[in-house]
């Protein structure tokens, strides 16, 4: 049986990940008729991320339900190429999420405010009227439907088609600005400290890093990321298998996911008439680690809040919606720009520099270590990075 779709909505949100869920919730709770489209058959799956988020970033977007959090994180273990372990306290708590539970919960909130939700439904095109977007072409159970609306928010991930169809330049030209990731959910993982672990070294990954994030339930997310530029003869999964054998030989895989993340700057244009783009689709993520959950959620909350104001005013022109661009670029966008500079510096760090820093830090009191200590030692052991460090603090 095909579920009917209305012919017209105030807002259509494409993609029901963290960004799309927040956008749909915001529209619906403000009384606007809303359609949320998800191409996958189930909200929240597959999970293509490490699920670790900062408490502050998450709570800025939404008041988290305890069921979304598997445990609270208060420190991180950095592991050098030779296996030296350095524990650093988190400057603020972080959370390990049960992301599928969180996404389903937020979508349910939108549904309580009468948002329409369609899974297994693909947005295949945009409708235009003069110089503005006025709807979405939808493929719903092999049935093509044109659905009109006053505004579209694209939250359809790094592979976003909607942004391109709206006329926004979303092409990534620098291969260092695309991260390719592979991750196992594993059991039988032993971690002396119980902290999330970040593993560095060319013997582990060609660039970037590998991770082990305990879920607090006897399982862990074990994965790695490399830039597209570093991708070579070995696939990310082959590199991940070698990492698991080297560092976690007792681990047993329960699930495997692969995907990509943006590691560059956000799009220069984020809006068009009747159209906004958020989250990974807008290249909004921490460029250093590829983390995008809280970037996605906060960008969607900001965009949808501005869109609600524009809908109430009866003005969804590009000029009116450009408030979103300005507020993002002057707010969280500054943080993203800083992370981009830091990523460029980190990609230049060699293994001997990491090892030298680890050997010094291992003898320090862990409770007094700070992330700035890592940066200082890195620059001290590799002076060529001083120019990159200066850029960070301009």
Automatic annotation (TrEMBL):
Keyword Repeat: no
Pfam entry (one): GGR_cat
Domain (Digeranylgeranylglycerophospholipid reductase catalytic) ranges: 177-259
S-adenosyl-L-methionine as UniProt keyword: no
GO biological process, alphabetically ordered: phospholipid biosynthetic process
Superkingdom of this protein's organism: Bacteria
Protein's UniProt name: Digeranylgeranylglycerophospholipid reductase catalytic domain-containing protein
Keyword entries, A-Z: Flavoprotein, Lipid biosynthesis, Lipid metabolism, Oxidoreductase, Phospholipid biosynthesis, Phospholipid metabolism
PANTHER family, sorted: DIGERANYLGERANYLGLYCEROPHOSPHOLIPID REDUCTASE (PTHR42685:SF18), GERANYLGERANYL DIPHOSPHATE REDUCTASE (PTHR42685)
GO molecular function: oxidoreductase activity, acting on the CH-CH group of donors, NAD or NADP as acceptor
InterPro entries on file: FAD/NAD-bd_sf, Geranylgeranyl_Rdtase_fam, Geranylgeranyl_reductase, GGR_cat
């Amino acid at each position: 049986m095909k579920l009917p779709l209305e012919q017209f909505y105030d807002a259509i949100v494409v993609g029901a990940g963290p960004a799309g869920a927040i956008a749909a919730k915001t529209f619906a709770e403000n009384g606007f008729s809303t359609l949320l489209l998800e191409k996958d058959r189930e909200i929240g799956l597959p999970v293509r991320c490490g699920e670790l988020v900062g408490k502050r970033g998450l709570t800025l977007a939404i008041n988290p339900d305890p069921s979304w959090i598997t445990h609270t994180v208060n420190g991180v273990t950095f592991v050098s190429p030779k296996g030296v372990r350095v524990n650093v306290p988190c400057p603020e708590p972080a959370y390990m999420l049960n992301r599928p539970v969180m996404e389903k919960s937020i979508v349910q909130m939108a549904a309580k405010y009468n948002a329409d939700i369609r899974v297994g439904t693909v947005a295949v095109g945009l409708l235009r009227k003069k110089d503005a977007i006025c709807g979405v072409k939808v493929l719903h159970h092999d049935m093509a439907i044109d659905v009109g609306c006053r505004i579209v928010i694209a939250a359809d991930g790094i592979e976003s088609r909607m942004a391109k169809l709206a006329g926004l330049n979303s092409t990534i030209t620098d291969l260092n600005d695309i991260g390719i990731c592979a991750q196992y959910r594993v059991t039988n993982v032993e971690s002396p400290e119980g902290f999330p672990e970040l593993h560095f070294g060319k013997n582990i990954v060609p660039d970037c890093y590998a991770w082990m994030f305990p879920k607090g339930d006897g399982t862990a997310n074990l994965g790695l990321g490399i830039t597209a530029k570093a991708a070579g003869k070995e696939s990310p999964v082959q590199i991940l298998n070698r990492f698991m054998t080297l560092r976690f030989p007792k681990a047993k895989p329960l699930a495997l996911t692969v995907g990509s993340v943006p590691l560059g700057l956000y799009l220069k244009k984020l809006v068009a008439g009747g159209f906004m783009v958020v989250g990974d689709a807008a290249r909004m993520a921490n460029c250093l680690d590829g983390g995008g959950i809280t970037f996605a959620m906060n960008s969607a909350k900001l965009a949808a809040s501005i869109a609600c104001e524009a809908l109430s005013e009866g003005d969804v022109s590009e000029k009116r919606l450009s408030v979103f661009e300005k507020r993002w670029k002057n707010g969280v966008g500054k943080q993203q720009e800083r992370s981009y500079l830091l990523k460029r510096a980190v990609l230049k760090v060699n293994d001997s520099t990491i090892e030298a820093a680890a050997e010094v830090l291992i003898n320090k009191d862990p409770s007094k270590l700070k992330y700035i200590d890592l940066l200082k030692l890195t620059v001290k052991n590799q002076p060529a990075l001083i120019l990159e460090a200066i850029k960070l603090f301009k």
